[in-house]
Amino acid sequence: MGSQIDIQQIWHSQLQPSISRLMRNEPWLATQTHAAIYTTIYNVVMRDREHGGRQLYSHLSAYYAAYAVHIYEAAPNDGLLVLDYYDSEWTRFSRGAVAVDRLFNYLNRDWVSVQRDNGRRDVKTVLNVAVTQWKMNMFDPISPRMEALFDVEDTHVAALRTKLTTENLRVADVGPKMCVRPPHSDTSSLGSGST
């Protein structure tokens, strides 16, 4: 029970503020801060490998879910603005998720990989937790609005849905190439919105 209270306190005082900073794409953490957080993650996992890893993983999943819901709720309702909003928010979110994944490398390496080796296919890397929560809480609810803007034969939304469902995305797989519209695309392929 004491370990859980410590993890809660560590999450709220150290980890969550740093994760939030990375997700907002603020300047990278100072080397000393990064090392202290990495050491904290290491200590939490090593103190109680099963409980500590599971608690950090659960906190990350809940954080990403709430973060993606917040982004969805702030989405504009106005036609083409939703596409620009989605792409800019995905780019920012994916950059932050990659930085957090690197920060939580120890959790991925020494807890997630052990769980997966033991047959737990529901346990994913920190990056894949972020992408899964994005898909469920941002992409899935907003995709009908985006699909309505594209002609059926020109839609990129279905392909994006498939990419977001991929089980083992790597850092190289995420970013602007997973936007609805590639950078510098025009809007000539957009339909009237009544497909």
TrEMBL record:
One GO BP annotation of this record: ubiquitin-dependent protein catabolic process
Origin: domain of life: Eukaryota
GO terms, molecular function: ubiquitin protein ligase binding
Coiled coil: none
Gene3D superfamilies associated with the record: Cullin Repeats
Residue ranges annotated for the Cullin N-terminal domain, each copy included: 14-145
Family per similarity comment: Belongs to the cullin family.
Stated name of the protein: Cullin repeat-like-containing domain protein
Organism: Mycena albidolilacea
